[in-house]
Amino acid sequence: MCTHGGGAELLFNGVKKHHVTLPSQSEPWDMKQLLVWIQRNLLKERPELFVQGDSVRPGILVLINDADWELMGELDYQLQDQDNVVFISTLHGG
């Protein structure tokens, strides 16, 4: 499942939670591939507010099963069945 919060859901047509089934492939999916898939399939507007290069934009907190993705290997983390990935925007207008 992918969850968006802190305003990030606005980039996904206001949808906060997506239950995602990724297509089968020979190698396990990793976070880098997931971000590409999200950008192609779920992100509806202003991708520059969510992704930068091949990663998330600074200011987007990523949690994998409630743990900071920096502790999990970031882009190299290999997704497991039933993983819960959360994206939270820490950037707010003033």
Description:
There is one protein chain. This protein starts with a strand and ends in a 5-residue tail after the last strand. With 94 residues, it is of the alpha+beta class. Strands 2-1-7-5-6 form a five-stranded mixed beta sheet. It has two helices and seven strands; from the N terminus they run E-E-H-E-E-E-E-H-E. It is globular. The model has no long low-confidence stretch (mean pLDDT 85).
Structural class: alpha+beta
User: Uncertain spans, ≥5 residues at pLDDT below 50?
Assistant: none
Sequence of secondary-structure elements? EEHEEEEHE
In DSSP terms, counting alpha (H) and pi (I) runs of 4 or more, how many helices? 2
Helix content: 10-25%
DSSP E strands, number: 7
* Rg for CA atoms: 12 Å
Which features characterize this protein?
globular; alpha+beta; 16% helix; single chain; 5-stranded mixed beta sheet; 23% strand; 94 residues
Write the layout of secondary structure elements.
Elements: E1 2-5, E2 17-18, H1 31-41, E3 51-52, E4 55-56, E5 60-64, E6 67-68, H2 69-72, E7 85-89
Parallel strand pairs: 1-7
Antiparallel strand pairs: 1-2, 3-4, 5-6, 5-7
Pfam families: Urm1
Protein name: Ubiquitin-related modifier 1
GO biological process, one term: protein urmylation
Short description:
This protein is of the alpha+beta class and 94 residues long. It has helices at 31-41, 69-72, and strands at residues 2-5, 17-18, 51-52, 55-56, 60-64, 67-68, 85-89.
